[in-house]
Target: DNA-(apurinic or apyrimidinic site) lyase
Amino acid sequence: MPEGDTVWLTARKLHTALAGRTLTLADLRVPRFATADLTGREVLDVTARGKHLLTRIEGGLTLHSHLRMDGAWRVFATGERWRGGPDHQIRAVLGNAERTAVGYRLPVLELLRTRDEDEAVGHLGPDLLGPDWNPETAVRNLLADPGRPIGEALLDQRNLAGIGNVYKSELAFLARVTPWLPMGDLPPGTPERLVATARRLLESNKDTFDRRTTPNAGSRGGDGRRSPLCPGEQLLFVYGRRGRPCLRCGTAIRKAGQDDRVSYWCPGCQSGPTV
Model:
């Protein structure tokens, strides 16, 4: 599932292609909104709210979409051949004289009144990349259920919006605890550092689809030497690295299910319960 930084970058690309321009093509390929006619209206703004995308359109309308596991928006020059999947996977097309945005495999697509956006995103906690970001509120939300495992608490978008499975595992690694450790068992000050790290990582990755959490990943430092923690092109510490050596201690990374998702961790340098 795309995480908050990917959705933020997608929103920026859509905003650049559509905002301030009049729609000459608008096709919503879901039964409920198939007859909606948006042509002739100006796109005012495209913004991300956590993992949600809000495309605001002249006349007080908002097109709300969510990518979930494999949805995607692709932007093409008008007249360019669309590439992103077969036509039957297209759920939305928004085009102007210069650019066309095509939404593939969108599991959530709805047209609502802009004044009613809270019906779609009002349940979300502070957005790690949004103007409403409030670390104190995020920490308070996470600690409201002290018995809840860290991994589950971080993924709950009602606590803070934007963290997905990749960042969940990476944040637990950086905090040196397993994703199954209850929130209330974190040492004093760790919840605040966890939230601050989450914000820093999403901010540093929001301008690229090549997400990384390791320092100097795939590049050389000022002294010309690679970081010993990050040989080669290791962009992530634990996620997707089951069976490979931990970049910190060399222990083989493990993977297990957690709350219908998966978690990766290092049993050598992360303390706390496991499965």
